[in-house]
Amino acid sequence: MSQAPSGSADARPAAGRPRDNAPAAPAVRLLTLAPGVRAAFTGRHGGVSAPPYDSLNLSAGSGDSEAAVVRNRSLVAAACGLVPARVTWMRQVRGADVGQVREPAGPAAGGAMAASPAQCRDASFTAVPGLALGVLCADCPAVLLADPVAGLIGAAHSGRTGTALGVVPALVRAMTGAGADPARMDAVIGPAICGACYEVPKQMRDAVATVVPGSGCVTRAGTPGLDLRAGLAAQLAAAGVRRVQTDARCTAEDPGLYSYRRDGRTGRFAGLVWLAP
Ligand SMILES: [Zn+2]
Fold first, then answer.
1. CA of 66 to the centre of ligand 1 (A)
2. Cβ-Cβ contacts under 8 Å for 90 (sequence gap 6 or more)
3. Residue 178 C-alpha to ligand 1 middle, in angstroms?
4. Which pLDDT tens digit goes with each residue over 133-147?
5. Residues flanking ion ligand 1, Cβ below 5 Å
6. DSSP string across 134-190
7. How close is the Cα of 44 to the center of ligand 1, in Å?
8. What percentage of the chain's residues is helix, strand, coil (to nearest 5)?
9. How far is the CA of 104 from the centre of ligand 1 (A)?
10. What's the 270 CA to ligand 1 centre distance in angstroms?
């Protein structure tokens, strides 16, 4: 199911060169996660990146041009009613560290491609209204959390490694330590590769399923698989989070989303959450 670029290879625009024509509206699905808490999942259409990142790639680390990524981030911020400089991004390292964000990374944060060393992590939370937390995804689920009473929101990138390490339970604990209550939290698990598509070696499936009950499955092809969203739902329930929504779209099956598993070199979409200012 790899995507063939339209036109011949030599007619393809140079990778990373923004398109000249104005994009259509960026693909952004907005939702209200909890009272006063907004969230969004972006898609791959409506941006300016050239193939193979076409077109709404939000990741600076994918090989795309910085100009295209900056433009795409601005388009997404505008669609969300946010100031680009107040959307924070992490340098995701597939770990379980959690950090509190108290302010944007700096004056250049909206366009800065490099997260500061302090942002090398996979989960963040904040109490600052209007400051959005962004998670970059291709096949890995983003998990967005909110306790509207405590005025705290959180975001985590939880792929196979992060889920096995418990990054989402760590985020719930960190937010709880800052005054949140899991019983008051709302969560949404974002688009991800589904269990029917996510084939892994049996040994890996069994190892993850041992530490993340509910994550082991069988794929559509009858081979060992992982259903990360099922595992995350179980982790959230065990952490005391009762209200959990899921965006059931499968990245590998939905051409409106980026999938590393399907496409290899590709862009990233994002999950975003923020306290309405
Ligand atoms: Zn699938």
1. 30
2. 115, 119, 120, 121, 122, 123, 124, 134, 135, 136, 157
3. 36
4. 999 999 999 999 999
5. 194, 196-197, 250, 252-253
6. EEEESSSPEEEEEETTTTEEEEEE--HHHHHHTHHHHHHHHHHHTT--GGG-EEEE-
7. 17
8. 25, 25, 50
9. 35
10. 18
The two beta strands, 186-189 and 142-147, are antiparallel
Question: Would you say how long the chain is, in residues?
Answer: 277
**261/269 Cα distance (integer angstroms):** 14
* Tokens coding 3: 């995507």
| Cα-to-centroid distance, 155 and ligand 1 (Å) | 23
Q: What's this model's pTM, rounded to 2 decimal places?
A: 0.88
pLDDT score, position 93:
84
CA of 148 to the centre of ligand 1 (A): 32
Domains belonging to the chain, first-starting first, are 30-193+243-275 (3.60.140.10)
113 C-alpha to center of ligand 1: Å? 31
In angstroms, rounded to a whole number, what is the distance separating the alpha carbons of residues 219 and 196? 4
- Token pair, residue 194, equals 């589904």
